[in-house]
């Protein structure tokens, strides 16, 4: 079984201290894949400092020099992987950037190249803002040679006329009918692959994620924990624990099992 951690929303507004506080212990055991916003627009995201929200100003990653130095070193040391997380993330005139936004192919191409130049790292995975992507977004990432951190689904990006989409839908449906949830395997499509994230957030149930982890292990599949560093101190609604403690419980389960292989999201999607 493969295990990975996906953290969304690293941007100009992130401090190295925030990431180090969240992941200094965890990255002693395995890497963390960071979904990074190249040109963060100060919109409505709760991951932004309160004073910056809804300014709608644009903040390129390279202007936070301390963060760039930290990320370069962390990537070089194998602690972190860089992934592309949208372009601006938030837009004032659309709800979902990679569902309703414009110039998506150009934004993916430019965002990928920008992160590679700034971080001196190869970008292999695209994570859509708010986990929302449409047909044009999928076409844009496929054209750029990127895989998807997340699952588009038939209601959004998949085509009813693509045999691989119907095959993926049918396999997931049978999994659900048999009493399972989550998607503990890689989805293969022409031009890209997709890897579902299991939310580790305040509204996520700890017991449900532990169940999904065990089912992925029994299937010899994949479990991707998807979280936000800025929520680590927030209490979970499912039981008396924080988001950070929820993640550490999954990490403990992964590192204590010799049959679990811990890799980056990009490594797993490139298998």
Could you explain how this protein is built, in words?
- This protein is an alpha/beta fold and 271 residues long.
- It has a single domain, classed as Alpha-Beta Barrel (TIM Barrel), CATH 3.20.20.370.
- Helices cover 35% and strands 18% of the residues.
- It is built from nine helices and twelve strands.
- The strands form three sheets. Strands 1, 2, 5, 10, 11 and 12 form a six-stranded parallel beta sheet that branches. It has a four-stranded mixed beta sheet with strand order 6-7-9-8.
- Strand 8 and strand 9 form a beta hairpin.
- Helix 4 packs across helix 5.
- It is globular, with a radius of gyration of 18 Å.
- It starts with a strand and ends with a helix.
- The mean pLDDT is 96.
Q: Quick recap of the structure?
A:
This protein is of the alpha/beta class and 271 residues long.
Instruction: Count the domains.
Output: 1
Instruction: Please tell me the overall pLDDT.
Output: 96
Which radius of gyration do the C-alpha atoms yield?
A: 18 Å
CATH C-level class: Alpha Beta
Q: SSE order, as H and E?
A: EHEEEHEHHEHEHEEEHEHEH
Could you say what the CATH topology is called?
A: TIM Barrel
End-to-end distance, in Å?
Answer: 13 Å
Shape: globular
Question: What structural category do the secondary elements indicate?
Answer: alpha/beta
Helical residue percent?
25-40%
Please state roughly what percent of the residues sit in beta strands, choosing from under 5%, 5-15%, 15-25%, 25-35%, 35-45% or over 45%.
Answer: 15-25%
Number of helices: 9
Biggest β-sheet: count, sense, barrel?
Answer: 6 strands, parallel
Q: What is the name of the CATH superfamily?
A: Glycoside hydrolase/deacetylase
Beta-strand segment tally: 12
> Which runs of at least 5 residues are low in confidence (pLDDT < 50)?
none
CATH second-level architecture = Alpha-Beta Barrel
């Amino acid at each position: 079984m493969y295990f990975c951690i996906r953290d969304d929303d690293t941007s100009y507004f992130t401090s190295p201290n925030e990431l180090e506080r969240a992941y200094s212990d965890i990255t002693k055991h395995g890497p963390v894949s960071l979904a990074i916003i190249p040109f963060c627009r100060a919109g409505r995201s709760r991951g932004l400092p309160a004073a910056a929200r809804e300014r709608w100003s644009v903040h390129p990653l390279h202007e936070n020099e301390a963060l760039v130095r930290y990320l370069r070193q962390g990537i070089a040391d194998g602690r972190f992987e860089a992934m592309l997380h949208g372009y601006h993330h938030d837009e004032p005139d659309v709800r979902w950037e990679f569902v309703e936004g414009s110039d998506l192919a150009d934004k993916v191409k430019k965002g990928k190249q920008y992160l590679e130049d700034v971080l001196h790292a190869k970008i292999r995975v695209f994570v859509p803002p708010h986990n929302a992507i449409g047909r044009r977004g999928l076409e844009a990432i496929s054209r750029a040679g990127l895989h998807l951190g997340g699952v588009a689904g038939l209601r959004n990006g998949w085509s009813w006329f693509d045999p691989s989409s119907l095959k993926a839908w049918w396999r997931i449906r049978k999994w659900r009918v048999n009493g399972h949830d989550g998607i503990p395997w890689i989805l293969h499509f022409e031009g890209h692959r997709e890897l579902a994230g299991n939310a580790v957030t305040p509204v996520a149930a700890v017991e449900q994620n532990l169940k999904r982890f065990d089912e992925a292990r029994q299937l010899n599949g994949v479990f991707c924990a998807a979280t936000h560093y800025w929520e680590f101190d927030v209490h979970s609604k499912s039981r008396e624990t924080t988001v950070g403690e929820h993640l550490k419980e999954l990490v403990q389960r992964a590192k204590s099992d010799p049959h679990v292989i811990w890799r980056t999201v990009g490594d797993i999607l490139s298998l």
